[in-house]
Write a structure and sequence with these properties.
The chain starts with 5 loop residues before the first helix and ends in a 21-residue tail after the last helix. It is built from twelve helices and four strands. The chain has helices at residues 6-27, 52-66, 70-85, 114-127, 134-148, 181-189, 195-202, 228-238, 258-264, 271-278, 280-291, 293-307; strands at 29-30, 33-34, 209-211, 245-247. It is globular. By secondary structure, it is mainly α.
Length: 328
């Protein structure tokens, strides 16, 4: 028989070994980069704080059971943290008399959920003091919020350190709701994201609401990208004032692909949402995600892992804060 030939047996074993090595390499790689980049690892806390992930997850789940709308808030917090100075927990720092921090920027005043991060941090400091960074807690909380809301389950590498800077002037780097597609592609491209990854990350707007102040400019003149009936809905929302809230879609606490279907109907709340469909360069991506939720989920989780590795702090460039709201 064939297997009785030692040479053939050696070949088969060699091929099997190479295949298993390839599979392992695939498992530790996302979008072409290894999880070990910048010292981050999936099992970073396995020896130093083995219950870190379960503590964060349980804390997030309890908070979301009381207030499901916090899912959107935690995802948004992670995005705003990473896009300013990298994923370093700088969004959590409170302002002082000598410094106005990121969280007090106009674009961040509507952020909430800080108490969830504080709660998780307090428990982690009791279990393993000085080990788990606030930046990692924010990243894990966003991931757990996505899953709780019905989105994809995915793991993220850990090991981020907390930044030592948080200044209001740095928030100029955040994308604005008035951005057109070219501006969005440029803003995301400067951080290494493709147009498709930008659209996938924009899909986070399947959760949550927008305040009137962020879309009322669309109502001043006739906006050809806005459905006329939906414009009346937005106007009615804004009649209650700038802080009145409009859901991005009809399931604001559920992570799904309805956001993209809304864009096809010209019912995007923000101008920066609707242009993703009106612009030929990104329209096909929107159509694809609207028709295939599984594809959106896959691309979203890949993009979220990638975003979570933006400009991470290591060594003397970072620290593990004792209190997430202030630098040590």
């Amino acid at each position: 028989m064939l297997l009785n030939c030692p040479l053939n047996l050696v070949k088969i074993v060699t091929m099997a070994t190479l295949l298993s090595m390839f599979i392992v390499m695939e498992l530790v790689t996302v979008s072409g980069f290894p999880y070990g980049v910048d010292g981050l690892r999936m099992d970073y806390y396995i020896m130093t704080c083995p219950f870190a992930e379960s503590i964060v997850k349980n804390t997030v789940n309890r908070a979301l059971e009381d207030d499901p709308a916090l899912a959107a808030a935690l995802v948004r917090m992670h995005f705003h943290d990473c896009f300013i100075e990298g994923c370093d927990g700088s969004i959590l720092i409170d302002s002082t008399k000598d410094n106005t921090a990121e969280k007090d920027s106009p674009g961040n005043l509507s952020l909430r959920g800080y108490e969830v991060i504080d709660d998780a941090k307090e428990q982690l400091e009791e279990q393993c003091p000085g080990i788990v960074s606030c930046a990692d807690i924010v990243a894990m909380a966003a991931r757990d919020a996505v899953f709780w809301a019905g989105g994809p389950v995915y793991d993220i590498p850990k090991g981020r350190k907390d930044g030592k800077r948080s200044k209001i002037e740095d928030t100029i780097n955040l994308p604005f709701p008035s951005f057109n597609t070219s501006e969005l592609i440029k803003a995301f491209g400067q951080r290494g994201f493709s147009a498709q990854e930008m659209v996938a990350l924009s899909g986070a707007h399947t959760l949550g609401v927008a305040r009137c102040s962020s879309f009322k400019a669309r109502l001043s003149n006739v906006d050809p990208t806005l459905d006329s009936h939906f414009a009346k809905t937005l106007s009615k929302t804004c009649s209650a004032g700038d802080n009145a809230e409009q859901p991005f879609d009809i399931t604001p606490n559920t992570f799904d692909n309805l956001y993209f279907n809304v864009l096809i109907r010209k019912n995007g709340v923000l101008f920066s949402d609707q242009v993703l469909y009106t612009t030929p360069q990104t329209r096909a991506i929107v159509n694809g995600y609207a028709m295939n939720q599984a594809m959106f989920f896959f691309d979203f989780q890949q993009a979220m892992v990638k975003m979570g590795m933006l400009n991470v702090k290591q060594g003397s460039n970072g620290e593990v804060r004792e209190n997430c709201r202030k630098i040590n």
